[in-house]
Write a structure and sequence with these properties.
Elements (H helix, E strand, L loop, with lengths): L6 H21 L4 H17 L1 H8 L3 H23 L4 H12 L4 H8 L3 H20 L23 H25 L5 H21 L3 H24 L3 H20 L1 H9 L1
């Protein structure tokens, strides 16, 4: 039998896995090489600590589903490449994208179901996405027409930009009540204002991407997130939370109303 790992070694591996999680969160939507490094750190830590991790992971059906999907992609890629040798690079790329879903296992493991870690991951993902997009604002000066008439991606394909911004928008609405409660009382209004501004900018970005698929996918999720916020505030009798939710409705509604002509024109084409 192999000796049991010491508590110090376990803590070190957990620290490496957690660092990989945070690196992955910061870079997943903008700096793919760094995101891969983050994934590798999580996978190494998970493998090194497999004696403790695997007994818990194997009891979860989602682990087997994700591993089966990844295994199928890895087997299918060489078979498809042999069938179409001229497109082998495309087959490998598609297989890698599918196998990437298995990364949910280490991400979920190092999130631990801990609210603090979840909020940190969301904040890092938002920071990484927004900072890199700022670096591409210079693209706006190279457009042939007004920036609000172009399909913006700011360094990404418009459809990718729309999905990432939309995901962050939903996360902003879901986590806003928790973030407001965690903020010191004297900064609470400033935090709520910053979150409303972030939500408005993200929604504007989704609209300016002119990606109809993202609009259709985001619309019901937006309605659900706002309805859940209003319901939670009413159910728990939290007047301030209810006012904040109504403010979110007003801000997002104003953004949508201001872009209705462009949205209608895009949907009609």
């Amino acid at each position: 039998m192999s000796p049991m790992p010491s508590a110090g070694a376990t803590e070190q591996r957990d620290a490496v896995g957690t660092a990989g999680l945070y690196l992955f969160a910061f870079s997943a939507w903008s700096l793919r090489p760094l995101a891969v490094v983050g994934c590798l750190l999580m996978l190494w830590a998970l493998w090194a600590d497999r004696a403790a991790c695997w007994p818990q992971l194997r009891r979860d059906p989602l682990t087997w589903v994700l591993l089966a999907i990844a295994g199928y992609a890895l087997v299918y890629a060489p078979v498809a490449a042999l069938g179409e040798p001229e497109a082998w690079q495309q087959q490998v790329k598609h297989a890698a994208r599918v196998a990437y879903y298995a990364g949910l296992v280490p991400v979920a493991w190092y999130l631990r179901g801990d609210e603090g870690r979840v909020l940190k991951v969301w904040a890092l993902a938002a920071a990484g996405f927004l900072l890199v997009r700022l670096a591409f604002l210079g693209e706006l000066s190279d457009l042939d027409g007004p920036w609000w008439e172009a399909r913006l991606g700011l360094g990404l394909e418009p459809i990718s930009f729309a999905y990432y911004a939309g995901t962050l928008l939903i996360g902003t609405l879901v986590f806003a009540p928790r973030l407001a409660r965690l903020a010191p009382r004297r900064y609470r209004r400033a935090v709520i204002g910053a979150l409303l501004l972030l939500a408005a900018l993200l929604l504007e970005g989704v609209i300016l991407s002119q990606t109809r698929a993202a609009w259709v996918a985001l619309a019901p999720l937006l309605l659900l997130a706002v309805a859940a916020g209003l319901w939670g505030a009413w159910r728990h009798g939290e007047q301030r939370a209810g006012v904040a939710a109504l403010l979110a409705v007003a801000v997002l509604g104003a953004v949508i109303a201001g872009n209705l002509p462009a949205v209608g024109e895009r949907l009609a084409t």
